[in-house]
Amino acid sequence: MGNVTKLSMLGLFLLTGSLQLVSAKGLTRAQTNYMLQCQGCHKASGSGMPPQTPDFHEHGNAFMHSEAGRRYWISVPGAANSPLTDGELADVLNYIANDIVKVDNHTAFTAEEVRAHRGEKMTNVYEVRQNLVDSLAATQAPLSSTVREKHESPGG
Ligand code: HEC
């Protein structure tokens, strides 16, 4: 084995070692981006400060199972106008869906999906959100547990 090969293998070893250090701390790039770009308003737990800053858990599961809901998450100002690239924003939204909300069978956002909808301007976010919640409720999609309980309770 030549010295050059030995050196490059050493480099690879050091690189892998430092990547492992990063993951040992448990911080993925998406998590770091969430902390830097979103957490100030949405909090580490994703509970936000309702009603101004919605709790991701409230309708996250239902939104993620609807095309319109996914577009809404991509194009809300805080997400769409962030300095993140399309791929980074996709990863942060997946982090919110998988690790914060724990969406059932989440279909991962891709850079392509983010790119396709990020430019859609939203003028009245609360109205868009309410219309979305109403239409999802009308189609019996599982909304928050409170809504589900109402549907399932015998007299309700
Ligand atoms: C300056 C505060 C602020 C920051 C920073 C921020 N957001 Fe938001 N976010 C809000 C507010 C306020 C709303 C409610 C809608 C609105 O007024 O835009 C919201 C709504 C949302 C929603 C819709 C949630 C729902 O259930 O209706 C998503 C998704 C979201 N933000 C993602 C993000 C992401 C991702 C980032 C970071 C890249 C981010 N936000 C950064 C304040 C913020």
UniProtKB/TrEMBL annotation:
<protein>
    <recommendedName>
        <fullName>Cytochrome C</fullName>
    </recommendedName>
</protein>
<dbReference type="InterPro" id="IPR036909">
    <property type="entry name" value="Cyt_c-like_dom_sf"/>
</dbReference>
<dbReference type="GO" id="GO:0009055">
    <property type="term" value="F:electron transfer activity"/>
</dbReference>
<dbReference type="GO" id="GO:0020037">
    <property type="term" value="F:heme binding"/>
</dbReference>
<keyword id="KW-0732">Signal</keyword>
<feature type="signal peptide">
    <location>
        <begin position="1"/>
        <end position="24"/>
    </location>
</feature>
